[in-house]
Specification:
Layout: H1 6-18, E1 34-37, E2 40-50, E3 53-61, E4 67-76, E5 82-89, E6 105-111, E7 118-124, E8 130-137, E9 142-146, E10 151-155, E11 164-170, E12 175-182
Antiparallel strand pairs: 1-2, 2-3, 3-4, 4-5, 6-7, 7-10, 8-9, 8-11, 11-12
Length: about 180
């Protein structure tokens, strides 16, 4: 069932996906971006929006106490209800934390290509002071985000064709490293 509150739609969907049947967490109501029940917490950490579309980075504490990050995408339908349309993150992709590298790296997940692009994830800094990440798609579409608390989040209403390259920059706008992130 879709909701008029985009965050509540995400809470309900992730609750169903992440919690086993024996310990399901009731969705309840959102208060200050945090949903808590039975020692489980879902927090909204970062948000981007366009008319009728929103993307969030959320973190959920699983039953083992591990923080699981997701990039969640919702769209508003003609009646004003928000519907969950996709998610990417280590909770849906298994327990693989991504590539093990000793340099600055953006570990992103996303979807919606080519017309409803969203992506987000964690940036491994490795003491290289990464302050922003620029994404450049095969068709030339580019977007940037400032690194906040080790995370970046992207949402575009422009066409985005794979593959997508990430460029990581420091405060002096020096390119630190570039690598393929999607596709």
């Amino acid at each position: 069932m879709a909701h008029q509150d985009p965050k509540q739609e995400i809470v309900n969907r992730l609750t169903r996906l992440l919690v086993t049947g024996s310990s399901k967490v009731p969705a309840g109501n959102m208060q200050e971006g945090i949903q808590e029940s039975k020692n489980k917490t879902l927090r909204f950490l970062k948000e981007r929006s366009l008319p009728g579309r929103r993307v969030y980075i959320v973190v959920f504490e699983n039953e083992q106490g591990k923080e699981v990050y997701f990039t969640c995408y919702v769209e508003e339908d003609a009646r004003g209800n928000w519907q969950f349309r996709g998610a990417a993150g280590d909770g849906l992709m298994g327990s693989d934390p991504g590539p093990v590298v000793e340099r600055a790296w953006a570990n992103l997940g996303g979807g919606g290509m080519p017309d409803h692009f969203y992506a987000g994830g964690l940036v491994a800094d490795h003491d290289q002071n990464v302050t922003r990440v620029r994404l450049i798609a095969k068709n030339g579409t580019s977007m940037e985000d400032k690194v906040e608390d080790g995370m970046v989040l992207f949402l575009s209403d422009q066409r985005v064709d794979l593959p997508i390259q990430a460029e990581l920059y420091d405060a002096a706008s020096t390119l630190i490293y570039a690598h393929k992130v999607l596709g």
